[in-house]
Amino acid sequence: MEWTLEVIPVPVTDVDRAKAFYADRCGFKVDLDSSPVEGIRFVQITPPGSRCSIVFESGLPDTPGQSRMAPGSLQGLQLCVTDIEAARAELTGRGVEVSPVMNVGASGWQEGKGEDTWNAFLFFKDPDGNGWVVQEAPSPLAER
Question: Is the pTM of this model over 0.85?
């Protein structure tokens, strides 16, 4: 049996603002914008090429036994790309505030790509402060 991670809830204060940021600024595909009953809304969006989506919701009652994350509290969601400079150029060209390309060195984070093929990252936040990491991978996932 496969256990596939396919949807991650991202806590936001305004579903429309989040939808616009991720679709228009980040270039993610809107898969679903649905209100199954009055007062409840789901918006599911998928990064290009990903099998895992993110979802924003409003009006949904708390899940039994789980507490709801505060908007902006989700940090470290990681996307992988094969060209970190192209990814940075696309995001900045769409108006997203993005860090320089960084790598992990002996004294912590430093600007530029590292020597190892996996050691190149950039960082950005959505309007609520949820933090994303983009890492350069040596090849597409299907080839690893």
Answer: yes
